[in-house]
Amino acid sequence: QVQLVESGGGLVQSGGSLRLSCAVSGNIFSSLSMGWYRQPPGKQRELVAIISSGGSTTYTDSVKGRFTISRDNAKKMVYLQMNSLSPEDTAVYYCYARRNTGPIYWGQGTQVTVSS
Q1: How far is CA 69 from the centre of its chain?
Q2: H or E element at residue 94
Q3: Strands 110-115 and 10-13
Q4: What are the φ/ψ torsions at residue 61 (nearest 5 degrees)?
């Protein structure tokens, strides 16, 4: 069983930075593809960034050059460094995990609010 716990959300001014963290339980972390999704108010959940078990990364266009996803296999942690934040980044951010085509795991979400 895999459990995900996010932390690091909060309120920040436009142009500021935040780092989200996701702690992962279980013994299969190194084989998991990990990622971050977000759900803006009144909108559907959308992909932000993915990092594969091998370290390859993918970003949605709107965050390229501003956000960086990383993982620490020894600590079983995934991070999302978010720079140059704008009000459009306001959302609940969810940590995501999946091994190959197996079940998808989600964290409980952490709120990020960017004020103008």
Answers
A1: 7
A2: strand 91-98
A3: parallel
A4: -55, -35
Give the phi and the psi of residue 88 in degrees, each rounded to 5.
Answer: -70, -15
Q: How far is Cα 91 from Cα 96, in angstroms, rounded to an integer?
A: 15
Output the pLDDT for position 1.
84
**24: buried, middle or exposed (CB in 10 Å: 19+, 13-18, 0-12)?**
buried
- List the Cα angle 100/106/112 in 5-degree steps: 130
* The residue to which tokens 């972390």 are assigned: 29
- Contact criterion met (CB below 8 Å) for 67 and 82: yes
The separation between CA 95 and the C-alpha centre of its own chain, rounded to angstroms, equals 5
For 3-60, how does the pLDDT look when each residue is reduced to its tens digit (9 = 90+)?
999 999 999 999 999 999 999 998 899 899 999 999 999 999 999 999 999 999 999 9
- What local confidence, expressed as pLDDT, does residue 33 receive? 97
Q: Let me know: does 80 contact 9? Beta carbons within 8 Å.
A: no
Q: Residue 116 in 3-state DSSP?
A: coil
Q: Count other Cβ atoms within 10 Å, centred on residue 99.
A: 16
